[in-house]
Design a protein that fits this description.
four-stranded parallel sheet; 14 helices; 401 residues
Amino acid sequence: MNLKDYKFIVSSGCSYGVMMKNLFFNHTYLDNVYNKFNGDRLEYNYDKHKIIFIGTGLPSQSAEWASHSTQYVLNKLLKLGVKSENIYCFVEWTQYDRITNTNENFIDLSKLEVNNVIQNHTNKLIQDLTHYLNIKSFTKLPNVGIIDNCSYINSNSILPNQIETLFGVNGKLMYEKHFKIHQQTTNVSFLKNYLNNILSLQNYLKSNNIQYNFCNMQSEFDGWIRNGFEYQQKIKYGRGYHKYHIANSIITQNLNYDNIKNEGIHVIDAYPQISHLYNLIDFSNWWFYKEDGFNFGGIDEYFLHKYDIYSYSNLMHYNSNEINVYDIVGGYNWHPTEILYTLLHNTACFNNPFVKVKDSWQEYLIKLLNEDINYKGITKHKLSCSKNYYENIIQHEHTKL
């Protein structure tokens, strides 16, 4: 393959790691939104037909997966002769306590059905690359990634019957062992593993002079509160720290949220014993949301405080007869609407040398989003449910901690 004339954007993360993907792909349920804009959404600093996007993000995956899958792809590209200056990397770092184990070596992965993680994305050249890049996921369990013959199983996000269905009786025994490991691991060990994976990728990128940006799914480095003999990142501690939650299929707003949203201490104040690793991170290439009292906010903080619940209305499966509240609840862990990630790209991906989002596209999206919010019915463009609809279904309470 002759790749010298191509530019590569390599990205990874968990299900929140869709920042780069949404630069290049249309969501079919929003065809009207794209068609009415009637133009290219991006400004290119290179021939757009020779910019190749390779994304390896998988749902519920770990920092280890993000680090390893990115280094795997980058190493393959460099071996194919791609120059460092022709690569840009963006990684969304997921929650600190997601760790992965692999399958035992007596399980033959070749007998299991798999899919390519790297799909036929932006250029026909990618078809050849998918054969060269041996990075896959299980068809029956797509959040389990595989690099060559090594699987990445985040047992904390998988049900026992899922892993048993995939691997049989061996899977049941393996899951029980993996799950116990996770249950018995301390937060400080999770954090050391988390920082080591970040540093591993950071050092690889720097040693190869590859431009990059990092961000967090959520505020992992701040907002830590005392929980028993440990500290806990408050977002994972309980619904009292969430602005919205669902109970009995009803969305409830926590009216106490503004009073407690900035509570907690920095991770180094909670765990000073990991400061030697934390201080090795080069934060000049990171984006953090630094408004509304946040200093280390991530994707959730940005969307929740910039566009509130309206940025979480995924109406992909909506029809005029019914709506699923799980598709429109907003806040931590509920996934912002993918198309709205383009409103964050230019700010978070400030080192991207190849493309940026046009101001006109961002202005257009915000205009349509506001039209949806102020719509008298449920939605006009499927970018969001209306304020009118939310006011009719949301219940309010002062959630106690």
